[in-house]
Structure formats: structure tokens, C-alpha cells
Design goal:
Blueprint: H1 2-9, H2 11-31, H3 39-47, H4 52-87, H5 99-112, H6 117-140, H7 147-170, H8 177-184, H9 195-210, H10 212-218, H11 222-227, H12 232-254, H13 260-272, H14 276-300, H15 309-327
Helix pairs in contact: 2-3, 2-4, 2-14, 3-4, 4-9, 4-12, 4-13, 4-14, 5-6, 5-7, 5-12, 6-7, 6-12, 9-12, 9-14, 13-14
């Protein structure tokens, strides 16, 4: 406990640690693979002094993939933070509440119709937004935010989206079935354009950090937010849109990756408290680190074959989710 209090009082130490872990995770991702390179060769490639083969391997294949993993992990963590504020529940996150499923169904439908990438992105955003609004409307009920009610709503909607996805896959041509299956389980094999997600991550972190004071107030309840003069309805819809945008970009880029939005914000709050001026940027960094490490494991454990990265994040997230469910039997506290 004293260590946690000390870290909470000195957030600089937390960010120094996270930045150091980010650098270490990237070096690991750039060095490991079916053809390993030493850290010296990796640094040489980054400096432009390595051989042509090493430069191509590190800069053209591994670096874009690592940047994509970092950006998507950060986006999912930010989506989790915003959903937990919106629903005032530490168990809220895109995968559990069906937002990722809604985005996946809409994106897959757009793909099967032969639409371009822009329309796939728009469809995914609409699906994530609709799923989030649906969970919010049903779970709110008479104003109670009981974890059981919220989770039941999310699980039922996620099951419905899963059934719709299965039906779409059953109707899909056989030659495109395997890539779609891997995409739905989380796949970074074709993630070579990280800048769209990275730009969105920087924007959302900047905007959410600027709005941290409002997020702090809203997390304590809509009534208290209204008392201090905050435009609750308008701000709530902005949070809806931001969480849906982050989820949609993550899903259209690498598929459905679960539990990052649950694991990361919860652990950050345990260490740094609930001030969103710290929680938002720290969660973005920690989410990026987690997915970079998970993706590195996914492509090295049984190299040259690759595992779906969503399966590895679930192996981390499920035990923590069960622990949180056990703790939810205690009197509920808002985030």
C-alpha cells in the first residue's frame, strides 16, 4: 500500500516506467520473430546502418506491425476508460459489452457487400455506436447500475452479435473464410499501415486528457455533474462517439481483441488512482505495451506459424475478469 500511495503522489515515476516499458516492448518486438535479430542489429536498422536484409525485416515488416499493435492497444484501453466513466462501472469494456461485436458484424457485412475501406470503417463505427447505445439504454433501466444487470445485457448482446457473425461466415465464399476467421480472432498479419490508428490514438488521448476534469465529475454521477453546471447530455454523447470511434478503428484494423479495455484501466487505477489526467494517458501507454507484447508472443511461440493475438489477450483478461466479478459482490463503488 505505501508503494501505491507513493506512485500516486508522483505520477512522473509511473510515466517514466511506462515509457521505459514501451521502449523495451518495441525492442523486443523488432528483435524477435521466426528470424531473430540481435538488439544491436535492431538498433543498427533503426539507425540505418544495418544490412539491407535486416533493414527490410525490421523497418518494413516488424516496425509497422509493432506500431499498429501499440496504437490498437491504446485505442482499446481508451475505449475501456471512457465506457467505465460512461456506465460508472469498472467491468465495462468494448469486448464484454458487445461494442466490438457490433463493430465486427457491421464491418463484416460491409466487406461481404464489397464496399470499400471507407464504408467498412463507417459501418464499424455505426455498429459500435449502436451496440453501446443499446447497452446503455437497456442496462440503465430505472437508474440502477448493478454490475450483474450491466454484464447480463452485454453478454446477451455479444451472443447475438456472435450468432450474426457465424451466420455471415457460413454464407461467405470458402476461399475467404480462413482470413475472416483469423481477423475475427484478432490478427495483425496484414497490419502494415499504423498511421490512421496512431493519429486517432494521439487525438483521443489529447482530447480526453483535456476533458479529464469533466470525466472525473461524470464518473461520480450525472446528478453531481448537472449540479456543477456540466452539459451532461451533450458530453455523454461525445464520450459515446469517442469510445465507439476507438472501438471501430481497432476492430477494422486487427479484428476483435478482447479484455484490454478491462485489464489496463483497472490496473492503472490501482496504481495511480482515479484522476483521468493520469488514467487516460497511462492507460493508452499500458494498453499499447500489452498488445505489442501479446503480438510478439503470438508470432514467436510456435514460429513460423502465428497465433491469433485475441486468444492471448483473453488468457490474460479472463482470470482478472473473474477476480473482478468476485470483488463486485462487495458494495459497488463508482470508478
Amino acid at each position: 500500500m505505501p508503494r501505491l500511495v507513493l506512485t500516486a503522489r508522483r505520477p512522473t515515476l509511473l510515466f517514466v516506467g511506462l515509457v521505459s516499458l514501451t521502449v523495451g516492448a518495441f525492442l523486443l518486438a523488432l528483435s524477435c520473430g521466426s528470424a531473430d535479430t540481435s538488439f544491436g542489429e535492431t538498433l543498427g536498422a533503426l539507425a540505418g546502418t544495418a544490412s539491407e536484409k535486416t533493414n527490410s525485416l525490421v523497418l518494413e515488416l516488424r516496425l509497422p506491425r509493432a506500431l499498429t499493435a501499440f496504437s490498437v492497444g491504446g485505442l482499446l484501453a481508451i475505449a475501456g476508460v471512457l465506457m467505465q466513466v460512461l456506465l460508472r462501472n469498472p467491468l465495462a469494456e468494448p469486448y464484454i459489452l458487445g461494442s466490438s461485436g457490433g463493430a465486427a458484424v457491421a464491418a463484416l457485412g460491409a466487406m461481404l457487400l464489397g464496399l470499400g475501406s471507407f464504408f467498412v470503417d463507417v459501418a464499424a463505427f455505426g455498429g459500435a455506436m449502436a451496440a453501446t447505445l443499446l447497452v446503455f439504454s437497456i442496462a440503465h433501466g430505472t437508474g440502477s447500475w448493478a454490475p450483474a444487470r450491466l454484464l447480463l445485457t452485454g453478454v446477451v448482446l455479444a451472443a447475438g452479435f456472435s450468432a450474426a457473425t457465424t451466420l455471415m461466415l457460413a454464407l461467405s465464399p470458402d476461399q475467404g473464410l480462413r482470413p475472416m476467421l483469423f481477423w475475427l480472432m484478432g490478427d495483425l498479419s496484414f497490419a502494415f499501415d499504423p498511421w490512421r490508428c496512431f493519429t486517432a490514438l494521439v487525438f483521443l488521448v489529447f482530447a480526453s486528457t483535456l476533458a479529464a476534469r469533466h470525466l472525473n465529475v461524470l464518473s461520480r454521477g450525472e446528478l453531481q455533474a448537472a449540479i456543477v453546471g456540466m452539459p451532461v447530455v451533450g458530453f455523454r454523447y461525445l464520450v459515446f462517439a469517442a469510445a465507439s470511434l476507438a472501438t471501430a478503428l481497432a476492430v477494422t484494423t486487427v479484428g476483435v481483441v478482447g479484455f484490454i479495455g478491462l485489464v489496463v484501466p483497472h490496473l492503472v487505477r490501482l496504481v495511480a488512482g482515479s484522476d483521468h489526467r493520469i488514467v487516460v494517458p497511462a492507460s493508452a501507454l499500458a494498453g499499447g505495451i500489452l498488445l505489442v507484447i501479446a503480438d510478439t508472443m503470438a508470432r514467436t511461440v510456435i514460429a513460423p506459424r502465428q497465433l491469433p493475438v485475441g486468444a492471448l489477450t483473453a488468457m490474460i483478461g479472463v482470470p482478472l475478469f473473474l477476480i473482478l466479478m468476485g470483488r463486485s459482490r462487495e458494495p459497488h463503488k463508482t470508478v
